[in-house]
Amino acid sequence: MKKKISFSIRTYVLLWSAVFSTVLALLVAGCSYVMTQRYLRLTSRQAAAGSTQLLGSEIGADLDHVKMFARWICLDKTVSDCLGGSGGSRPELVSVWDHLNAELNAQPVRSLIRRVIVSVPDGSRFLQLIPVYDTVNVKNAPSVLMKAPYFDELLTADDFTWAGLQESVLSPYYRKKIIPMIRPIQSSTSTQVVGWVYLEISQDLISRRLDNFTLKEDESIYLVISNHGYRYADGKFTDAVVPEDAVAYDLPGQDWQVALLPSRLELRGRSRFYLLIISAVFLAILAAGLFMGHILRQVINRPVTSLIDKLGRIGQGDFSADPSIEWDNELGEIGRGINRLSENVSALMEKKVQDEKARQELEYRVLQSQINPHFMYNTLNTIKWMATIQGADGIADMSTALSRLLKNVSKGSEALIPVEEELRLLDDYFTIMKYRYGGTIHLEKEIADPALLSCIINRFCLQPIVENAIFHGIEPKGGTGTILVQLHREGDDLLLDVTDDGVGMQPETIRRVLEGSEPGPADFFRQLGIGNVDQRIRQTFGEDYGITIESEPGSYTRMRLRFPVCPR
Fold first, then answer.
1. 26 strand-pairing partners
2. Which of 53, 276, 365, 531 is most exposed, with the fewest beta carbons within 10 Å of its own?
3. Strand 193-202 to strand 556-564: parallel, antiparallel, or no bridges (unpaired)?
4. How far apart are the first and last CA of the chain?
5. pLDDT band at 298 (very low <50, low <70, confident <90, very high)
6. 317: left (phi over 0), alpha (psi -120 to 50) or beta
């Protein structure tokens, strides 16, 4: 059969300490890692949100200046009256042109507006302002512009609408993109549209802000104009879709959005730094757990080893108490229990040895009383017949009684017999004692219930009691005496009371009688002894049974034999 593998308590302590500390360290490290990742992403997005908000605010402010200038043109009475007139003289057109140019020069975004065109609806009459030196003056600008795909959409919109970044239709060689703005001009006296205004805004309005914005290595900046997405890099805008994880900022009052994709490299670098810290915390917790396991192992190891050593010594027969294992803790309680157990085992073994000695002594005494009983029995029978022939009835009675006693001694080894049979043995014994004491002693019996005669009791338990009554009670009295044997029941117990009216017994005498140390004649049943009878009853039926003695000096002595009611 395969031997089952077992682990010591020390191994379990170390193992569970390692498991607990590892799980705790992993839990702390895992929670810390998740929290730091969330914190890093949150701070990264918060920083990106702040940057995009600042950038969007700057771009929005520039757009507001352009829109304010466009609104001024649309609402200016001089411009609307010029467009709504029948023709307009040259001095009038020059005056309006100067008026527009003066307002344009006053704008903070003047350098970002490449071209301004104010025209009647059909483009037959128009004014063109070119504030930037590299912008080409196009003679038929309104007719070219009116063919642009975004012209009608921007002109008829309810408010400022954006067409995104476009190639300039009026400056095809201009490498950068422009932002077209077109709004209708109404009459100053009615809602009639008398013309329109076109502003060609350079992409520098946006790019100059983006160029001043410092991007990390893998960061990207995006711009959304009226659902048109662009990615800005190296001074150029390219069509692109804004990533979902980009941080976006909507410009207030504009259909524009600025988005920033945070740096993943920076987040990864910070993550590695925090991961190092978490790893250090993990190792510290693990080391603390292992150290705690080592401490617990040392705390438990010494007492457990001492307890095991003590149990080993007990197994080898050393039952002496060991005060060193009685610590002031739970293991000390176990140590005290082991010491008590050791002492109890030692006491039980000592008692067992004493009981064995007593048993051997009893067997020896019984053997002494059984010397050639058959020979004596046959001899007594011969004496009985000779006494009967010669008419010596007393000798015959004594010989008969003694022969029956010897026959009972020799005929079997049953330790338990019925009460009735024990009383017959008592009658034979008392017959001998009656002749011995010249008829000065009498035996009476009271049977409360004849059914009790069938209960079993120890063989030869009454004869030593009666002998003690004669020896310690009646004989010292110096006169006649009576011994009363009473058989009755008390609950589930069978009681045999032997009472004599002799001189009584002192408590010390009672103690010596029960111990078997009281001196007396070396009669046959005296060798058995009352203490031996008491011991046999207790060994047979238990410690609740046995002999008790009640005596009053000068009056009486009662010996009570208690048995369980056990019918045969």
1. none
2. 276
3. unpaired
4. 50
5. low
6. left
Q: Which two tokens stand for residue 92?
A: 């009038």
CATH code reported for the domain at 414-564: 3.30.565.10
Strands 481-490 and 193-202: unpaired
Name the pLDDT band for 493 (thresholds 50, 70, 90).
very high
The domain covering 76-207 belongs, at the CATH homologous superfamily level, to PAS domain (3.30.450.20)
**How many Å separate Cα 375 from the centre of its chain?**
82
Residues 6+ positions from 40 with CB-CB distance below 8 Å? 267, 270, 271, 274
Alpha carbon separation from 219 to 214, 231, 246, 259 (Å, rounded): 9, 11, 10, 11
Burial class (CB in 10 A: 0-12, 13-18, 19+), 465: buried
Q: Which amino acid is at 411?
A: K
Run of H or E including 157: none
Q: Which tokens go with 39?
A: 């914190």
How far apart are alpha carbons 107 and 67 in whole angstroms? Answer: 11
Cβ neighbours of residue 566 under 8 Å, at least 6 residues apart? Answer: 455, 456, 494
Q: How far is CA 290 from CA 24, 277, 296, 424, 517, in A?
A: 12, 20, 10, 83, 69
Structure tokens at 288: 């603390």
**Looking at the predicted structure, is the pLDDT value of residue 29 above 80?**
no
Q: Which is higher by pLDDT, 294 or 185?
A: 185
Query: Can you give the pTM of this predicted structure?
Result: 0.49
Q: Rounded to an integer, what distance in angstroms lies between the CA atom of residue 526 and that of residue 369?
A: 10
Question: What number of other Cβ atoms are within 10 A of residue 281's Cβ?
Answer: 14
Strand partners, 446: 486
Tokens of 124: 């037959």
CA 153 from chain centre, in angstroms, equals 72
Handedness of CA 355, 361, 365, 366 (dihedral sign): positive
pLDDT of res. 390: 64
Looking up tokens 């100053």, which residue turns up? 188
What six digits make up the tokens of 169? 């239709």
Count the residues in the chain.
Answer: 568
| DSSP codes of every residue in 490-517 | ETTEEEEEEEE-SS---HHHHHHHHHT-
Cβ burial of 52 (10 Å; 0-12, 13-18, 19+) is buried
**Amino acid symbol at 481:** G
Instruction: Report pLDDT digits (tens) over 351-408.
Output: 888 877 777 676 656 555 554 555 565 556 666 566 677 666 667 666 676 666 666 6
The pLDDT value recorded for residue 396 is 61
**Is residue 162 within 8 Å of 130, Cβ to Cβ?**
no
User: Tokens 């009981």 map to which residue?
Assistant: 355
Contacts of 342 (CB under 8 A, 6+ apart): 310, 314, 319, 320, 321
Q: Tell me 181's DSSP state.
A: E
User: Backbone phi, then psi, for 53, in 5-degree steps?
Assistant: -65, -40
Chain centre to alpha carbon of residue 518: 68
Cα–Cα distance, 344 to 314 (Å, whole number)? 12
Any idea what DSSP says for residue 376? H
